[in-house]
Each structure stands twice: as structure tokens, then as C-alpha cells.
């Protein structure tokens, strides 16, 4: 259990950036409503989470990628990539998660994989991994699920991949740079 706490602490330390307005205020309202719903079902003796996740959270990740990293988001869904880097034209897959041990699925191998953590308490975000998408082909950090036709990894594995990339001093040609 200590490792989970360590991962959570590391992720919270990464989450330093506020969402742009009005999105930050809207998300605060969503979280407030979710807390109220959890409280009300608790009075009924049920334990339901009512977390804003799935497509909602994915869209927030794409918004961050577009506004903060200059990613041009595709107008329609394309399996394995959400957009392209406006500088290099490389394909970008964006994953945003709100839990420390979240599983991440990737359909194809993008040129660039951007994994973002959004702290559910502070509503601040940080980059977990920003680098070559080929990381998901490395069995140290991910595995391919033939049954579902996708790569599977996790937030802790992407943290480890990011740290390994920094230790190896990899070139930054496949890393998105923040725009202001």
C-alpha cells in the first residue's frame, strides 16, 4: 500500500498547472455535483463513485494538449491518435487519468504519447509521460493484448518510462513542448 501512496504523492507533485477558464470553474462545479450525488446515495446505503471519467476526462486531456502543447485535435475519432503536433506533423495520442493506478489502453503506436494526470482534489494537472509512442512496445512498460487488439499500460509504468527516458537523456525530437 505504501507504493500506491508514493505514486499518488508523485502524481500530485506533478499536477502544477491550472485548467484554463472557464473550464476550471466548470470542472469544479462537476466535482461538487459528484460529491453531492455520492452523499445522497450514501444516505440510501449505497456506495457509488459518480466520478467524471471516460470520454469526459479524455476530452479534457485533448483540450490541454491543444491549448498547452499546440496539438491540432482531429475533428473525428481516429483509433490510436487524437491529433497531430502543429510543429512536426507527428501523430499524438493523449491520455488523461485522475487515479494513481489507472490503466491506459492505446490502440496503435502513435509518434508521440502524452499522458496527463489531473488531480481530483486540486483539479490541477501535470505531465506523466511526454515522449515517443514506441514506449508502449517496450515490455518493461506495457504489454499487447491480442484479444482486444491494444496495448495496455498504467500510470505507474508511464512514470517509470518517463524517468527512464530522462536518465537516458533521449533526444527531444518526439516530445511536445508547452506553448503559452
Automatic annotation (TrEMBL):
Residues 29-169 form the DUF6998 domain. It comes from the Bacteria. This is DUF6998 domain-containing protein. The lineage of its organism: Bacteria, Pseudomonadati, Verrucomicrobiota, Verrucomicrobiia, Verrucomicrobiales.
Amino acid at each position: 500500500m505504501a507504493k500506491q501512496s508514493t505514486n499518488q504523492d508523485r502524481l500530485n507533485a506533478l499536477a502544477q498547472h491550472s485548467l484554463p477558464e472557464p473550464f476550471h470553474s466548470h470542472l469544479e462545479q462537476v466535482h461538487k455535483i459528484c460529491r453531492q450525488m455520492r452523499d445522497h446515495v450514501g444516505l440510501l446505503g449505497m456506495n457509488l463513485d459518480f466520478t467524471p471519467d471516460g470520454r469526459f476526462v479524455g476530452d479534457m486531456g485533448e483540450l490541454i494538449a491543444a491549448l498547452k502543447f499546440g496539438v491540432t485535435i482531429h475533428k473525428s475519432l481516429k483509433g490510436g491518435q487524437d491529433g497531430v503536433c502543429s510543429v512536426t506533423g507527428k501523430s499524438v495520442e493523449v491520455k488523461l487519468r485522475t487515479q494513481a493506478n489507472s490503466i491506459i489502453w492505446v490502440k496503435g503506436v502513435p509518434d508521440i504519447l502524452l499522458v496527463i494526470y489531473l488531480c481530483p482534489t486540486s483539479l490541477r494537472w501535470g505531465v506523466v509521460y511526454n515522449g515517443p509512442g514506441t514506449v508502449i512496445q517496450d515490455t518493461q512498460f506495457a504489454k499487447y493484448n491480442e484479444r482486444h487488439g491494444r496495448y495496455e499500460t498504467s500510470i505507474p509504468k508511464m512514470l517509470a518510462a518517463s524517468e527512464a527516458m530522462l536518465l537516458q537523456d533521449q533526444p527531444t525530437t518526439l516530445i511536445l513542448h508547452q506553448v503559452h
